[in-house]
Amino acid sequence: MAPTGTRLLIIDDSPEDLAVYRYWLHRALGEGLVIAQAELGADGLELARTENPDCILLDFRLPDSDGLAWLTAYRDATAGPAPVIMLTGHADEELALQAIRAGADDYLQKHEVTPARLVFVIRRAIEHTRMRRAREEADALLGAVLAAAPMGVAFFDPDLRFRHVNPQLAAINDALPEAHLGRRVEEIAPDIAPYITPPLAEVRDTGKAILNIEFQRAHRASPDIERHWQLGYFPVHTHEGQLLGVGALVMEVTERARASAAMASFAARTALIAEAADAFAATRLDTGAILGILAEHLTTQASDRCLIWRLTDNSLEYELVAWDSTEAAVVTPPTLSPLLATAVDTRLRDGQPLRLSTDRATTTALLPLAEMMAASDVLAVPIVVHGQTFGFALVGRVAAGEAFSDEELLVATELARRAALSLSNALLLEQVRTAEAALRQAKDTLEARVAERTATLLAREQQLHSALAEKEVLLKEVHHRVKNNLQVIISLLRLQSRRGVGAADAAQLRDTQHRIQAMALVHEQLYAVGDLGRIELAAYARQLLTGLLRSYTGQSGQVSATVAIPERLQISLDVAIPLGLIMTELLTNSLKYAFPDGRQGTVTLAATITSGELRLLVSDDGVGLPASDSLTQSRGMGGQLIRQLAQQLRGTVTAVLGTGTSFEIGIPYVERESGAS
Fold first, then answer.
1. Rounded Cα–Cα distance for residues 407 and 413 (Å)
2. What pLDDT does 65 receive?
3. Is residue 241 left, alpha or beta, with left meaning phi > 0 and alpha meaning psi from -120 to 50?
4. Distances (CA, A) of 76 to 67, 102, 493, 534
5. Higher-pLDDT residue of 18, 476
């Protein structure tokens, strides 16, 4: 039997042929077939535009035109043309080839046509056209989703050539999307190809995904700024397991990387200061040992060379008491001239550090020191004990163009301060009679500076909390925009279903709307409830079920719903979307088939957690399904989708025997320590 409402158009000026075709087709395809006919090409073209046939039988020779010219006019005038089968009384292979090139879907010679052959060709042409349109719609939907994705997405063929690139990835590569197609990474971005191509080839060759690759490089638009990216590659296979190519996801994580690097740097420098403080404390108040430890830690802090001078009784003379770390031994530097000593001593005695790269006023004084140390930048840090300049540390960086940062100056100053505290204790040991007063002064100074440092740390912690809150707001906005984009897709599908498509196509479009709505609800829950990692299953299930009931039963009250799910049961985003799609398929099946002819009934969603497993029951008290029609064994799209999603969740979907139709979904479940019950 032909599908209900199948429409054929026959364009042939032979009454005998028309009568034979009508007889054969009605006999083979049944009374549901509707046939329109025309003897002239112009009349046939008008009928093709107005009747919207599922298939057209076209005679090559017509009174007013030939089949090739008619095909050209038809393809130019129709956006979604029906399949055309060319009929001719001439056995001419060249003519057949011309017809196929002009757009004919098949070619038959009239003297070879049989009823079975004609019906077979018509059915095949209609099915091929439907499959082509379905692929075009799926490609359009996929393109819209990828264009709205908040990250770069690309697909490579097995030869590692670009097959698809969304606008976000094209912008990252600073090239148009169409400029990527058919080309390799080496041709689009040769500077990063050595880092990108090997993992792509590995995923292609092994069939295993590679995720969370960190990558840094400067973008062409801002070459002075290093940007961080997170990359992921995954294989794409057909249902039969044949490799189609490799997919790639790219997301910029520059701000996150900078924050992480800043925290790591802060932690490292804090640890360095704490380690130095412990080392100072272990010196038993030996002055030479304290200065040696200070030189070692100033070198570790990011310099190449460190010399420490101590003031003698004559403030214009200096003597070396620590070592040059590049020699790993004590060395004797040149004697400072009185003029140089005076110039440097003026600022250092006031407790102010000097830096060659920024303190232009003291450049003349520091240049000889930099030349002596063969350093591109020099940092001079005073060591102040009891308000008096005990000496100073001279730190040099050899690499050209690398100046000391403000943070490095702060750490060096803090190390010198910690050393000064130990030196203070050493000097106090030598002055027993004044030790108590000096220790109280050092204690008060230490507490004040610790309080200041603590306040600084608290302020930085507050900044980190504020940054985290801003990122949470941005992530909520991402979920909100994803939900809005999915709603736009749903609206487009709804508009498409109203534009004269067949009943089967309209049903498929509606099913697709429900699937996308299930995903949109997850993102709506995430930004609405405030937890960006998990959603409450009960609230999600009620929204999902309410939308499906409204779609399939309206306000009739024919079918009622029961949700028996613990209110605080939460699931993660990775679980919510596939589980929501499974529930959508099962509930849609119940609402479409379980309550025919206005039958009253109830659909139920219930969930329990047992031994680390979430068990979700989807059931109805309708007419039930024959065992042979089990949805989980079906080869249709719904059945395949359920099985694939269950496999993705490492779970099972099982039909439960009893009244009506029931399916039990079982998936692993791990409770969050502070989260759901």
1. 10
2. 84
3. left
4. 14, 11, 26, 52
5. 18
